Amino acid sequence: MEPMDDERDLSDEQGTTFEDLGLRPELLAALSALGYEEPTPIQAEAIPPLVEGRDLLGQAATGTGKTAAFALPVLQRLPAERGKAPAALVLVPTRELAVQVSEALHKYGRDLGARVLPVYGGAPIVRQLRSLDAGVDVVVATPGRALDLLNRGSLQLGEVRTVVLDEADEMLDMGFAEDLDAILDETPENRQTVLFSATMPRRLDALARRHLRDPVRISLGRERTEPGEAPRVTQTAYVVPRAAKPAALGRILDIESPTAAIVFCRTREEVDSLTETLNGRGYRAEALHGGMSPEQRDRVMGRLRGGTADLLVATDVAARGLDIDQLTHVVNYDVPSAPEAYVHRIGRVGRAGREGVAITLAEPREHRMLKVIEKVAGAPITIQKVPTVADLRTRRLELTRAALRESLLTDELDRFRVVVETLSDEFDLMEVALAAVKLAHEAGGGADDEEEIPQVSFRQDNDARGPSSRGAAGRTERPPRRSSGGPAARLFVGVGREAGIRPGDLVGAITGETGLTGRDIGAIEIHQRFALVEVPESSAEEVVRALRSTMIKGRKATVRRDSQT
Ligand code: AMP
To answer: Which residue from 531, 538, 533, 537 is spatially nearest to 518, judged by alpha carbons?
Structure first.
């Protein structure tokens, strides 16, 4: 394998392993089980000072791996003797994020037996009180509910070693500034304070000055690529909910028909499962990840170079040092965790004056990261719509037509004449041709078996949002209220209280898998064996499809429109 000439920069920067960061074996084991191969840049920079106990002010958007950047040190610093009161407090703007961050802490902290509790408004407070009383290590809370529990005397912050303010700009936008001050005042003076924010508005400086001591500062995506450095690549992105990604990718590849493509994933697990999916769709895809031996790697590369494989599905680590001449497309199955990684990935096509195509699948919540990347890459990334079933049919018919035309021009067809002649006694020639085209079309993989993929767009940017949505006096979070005002559809979800489902689980699942926000979701009723949830009528089909293909609290559920509505 020939080394790539532009390899130096990143391999020097990213030679760091999780072991180098000084993490405990239990955490390393969890990361390895999750298929994480190396720390993202924000993790490599943030984890060592955080493990040492330093305060930190970090600019990082969703998609950079920021959650693990603070979650791993929080878990590492849990005391050996666990008491009843929490040793760490993570404050987040929304219930969705509280659920997400808790799940991350739970995943990483499994081998440490970390007790993690999400608390947010709108969920029954009694259960949260009971859990707090039983003892927890990390509380992940929205500010309003944290303050409420603090005022009731059930949230004890005297033992807190670390406080994390995640998405701090959002918390300020939502009018939580005073709540944050009040909460932080209840924690020990010598605590560690960590602040992450996607943007760094001035108001944030004041908050940081008040609560952080001599913080390490980290930001991503400051430097721009020099003009001329950026490769000649057509850059497009598709906004796709996580659940629809495999289908969307298959469809995009069908339309693009790359000669040879490399598809980048974040983890080994993703590489393996995507390779399987693509092979199931008729592609000849090969997996390449850091867990493979040099011999396995060489075999894969041989198949790609020899043309017996047309797609390589790889992690960044595994793809390092690869030089593939005929590569026409680079696909980012996930938004890369740093702009530099993006620039490096897409540098594999569009070399030596050739044209290349870079395609990125972004989840609705990753819009900020994509903007940062666009700035650093120094060239526009065009957002495109995922090809529809109709697009796909048109494209497949085009391919069938082209194949037939080629056959008419070049093939020796005489031996089929007898078939056409005998049939023509009985049928019109046009009808015979139509049946033949149908068979050729289907043999070419042209069966129309596709479900529509929901078209979603990025959520509205915070910067464009109006002033604080909370009244000055309000301390409790409002129950979710639909902001669209349009007609609502009621959906039946076949899991309920018996399965431990709470409203937050449904909100989390819906907002995580679709373009909707918590505000778009209306009334939620949780019954013993099922739940009912209201969503905007215009998004009902998208939500049904997304929920059907995702797990809710680790279960697959029946989801359909409620027959009562
Ligand atoms: P975040 O920016 O924290 O929302 O994380 C974005 C996604 O990246 C999450 O799905 C994480 O599970 C994943 N992730 C975080 N760190 C790594 C890593 N070092 N390697 C692979 N995936 C990661």
So the answer is: 533
> Does 368 contact ligand 1 (Cβ within 6 A)?
no
Q: Which atom of ligand 1 is nearest to the CA of 66?
A: 3
- Tell me the CA–centroid distance for residue 64 and ligand 1, in Å: 7
Q: Tell me how far apart the alpha carbons of residues 396 and 445 are, in angstroms, rounded to a whole number.
A: 9
β partners of residue 560? 492
63 CB within 6 A, ligand 1 = yes
Q: What integer pLDDT is reported at residue 485 of this predicted model?
A: 58
Instruction: Return the CATH class of domain 10-219.
Output: alpha beta
pLDDT tens-place string over residues 16-43: 899 999 999 999 999 999 999 999 999 9
Ligand 1 proximity of 128 Cβ (cutoff 6 Å): no
64 lines ligand 1 (CB under 6 A): yes
Domain covering 466-561 assigned CATH 3.30.70.330 in the classification: yes
Confidence band of 231 (pLDDT split at 50, 70, 90):
low
Distance CA 92, CA 306 (A): 51
Q: Is the CB of 66 under 6 A from ligand 1?
A: yes
Going by alpha carbons, the residue nearest to atom 20 of ligand 1 is 36
Cα–Cα distance measured from residue 533 to residue 479, given in angstroms and rounded to the nearest whole number: 13
Closest approach atom of ligand 1 to CA 67? 3
Q: Per-residue pLDDT averaged across 110-136, rounded?
A: 92
Could you give the percent of the chain with pLDDT greater than 70? 88
Write out the H or E segment, with its range, that includes residue 133.
helix 125-134
Domains 233-388 and 466-561 share a fold: no
Overall CATH class of domain 233-388: alpha beta
83 CA to centre of ligand 1 in angstroms? 30
**CB of 14 shorter than 6 A to ligand 1:** no
pLDDT interval class at 235 (50, 70, 90): very high
Greater pLDDT, 253 or 350: 253
Kindly give the distance from the C-alpha atom of residue 233 to the centroid of ligand 1, in angstroms, as a whole number: 26
Nearest CA to ligand 1 atom 19: 39
Domain-wise residue ranges, the chain:
10-219, 233-388, 390-444, 466-561
| pLDDT at site 56 | 98
Pairing of strands 162-165, 88-91: parallel
- Centroid of ligand 1 to alpha carbon of 95 (angstroms): 19
Average pLDDT over residues 171-198: 95
For residue 317, the number of C-alpha atoms closer than 13 Å in the C-beta half-sphere is: 18
